[in-house]
Design goal:
The protein is mainly alpha-helical. The chain contains seven helices and no strands.
């Protein structure tokens, strides 16, 4: 299997967790506090992964200037696009309650674009992890998968409560899962043979976008409902990902 196809496969694996989250909400009614706890856990997983896997790798391969510039740029780009999506009705795309706007208000496209915005940086990280020639980063795949389950679960629960149809929900998240595979392949192909500093900068861009996404969408959802335990559960997710990074050799 070529590198691009392998990257697409692992990106799709990570993105498929979104559909799994949707499936769970279809089969059972998940309490909002549990959804919030899972969201907090996923936040901790991603924070650990970008701290000990993405940023460390970017720093070691490209140095501090490229890493710092990429990290801040990623956060700034994500924030700018997220503001535009927010103004068009996609600001509650990960909420599990009644905050999501009704389907008839035209916010569907904004929600889909927002979901895509959230997933692309994670998927590109999976693709670029193959460039070292040591196989895919297990930590990156596991971190993305574990964080995508609560993302899909929370958003799908909110969409259901907002009156959106099952076909719409599965269409959105199934499309995002496929786009995740494509983004991973694009990340691999675009950076194959690129200088280490460039790869480091792009990896840091993804890390900055992921951290901004966590702060803007995941942690607020977790804290609003499970605020008494959100911090503890987030720490548990962080510790699990940290352990995985050490077991997998960092």
């Amino acid at each position: 299997m070529s590198g691009a196809l392998l990257a697409a496969f692992w990106g799709l694996v990570g993105g498929s967790a979104l559909v799994l989250g949707v499936l769970i909400t279809t089969l059972v009614t998940v309490p909002r506090r549990l959804v919030a706890a899972i969201m907090a856990f996923g936040s901790g997983v991603l924070i650990s992964a970008l701290s000990f896997d993405l940023m460390q790798e970017a720093f070691e391969s490209g140095g501090f200037p490229a890493t710092a510039a990429g990290f801040f740029a990623g956060a700034a780009i994500y924030t700018a696009i997220n503001i535009a999506i927010t103004h068009r009705g996609g600001h509650d795309r990960k909420r599990s309650g009644h905050q999501q706007q009704k389907a008839q208000d035209g916010s569907g496209v904004a929600i889909a674009v927002g979901a895509l915005l959230d997933g692309i940086p994670e998927s590109m990280v999976i693709g670029t992890s193959l460039l070292a020639g040591k196989g895919v980063s297990v930590v990156a795949v596991v971190a993305v998968f574990l964080s995508n389950v609560p993302e899909g679960l929370s958003s799908a629960a909110g969409m259901r409560r907002a009156g959106r149809s099952a076909s719409y929900i599965y269409g959105v998240w199934g499309g995002i899962a496929i786009a995740s595979g494509i983004a991973a392949a694009v990340g691999y192909v675009a950076l194959a043979g690129a200088p280490a500093e460039y790869v480091a900068a792009v990896t840091a861009v993804a890390a900055g976008a992921i951290l901004a996404m966590i702060a803007d969408t995941m942690i607020p959802e977790a804290f609003e409902t499970a605020h008494e335990y959100a911090g503890l559960v987030t720490v548990a997710g962080f510790l699990v990902a940290f352990a995985l990074s050490k077991i997998g050799g960092g």
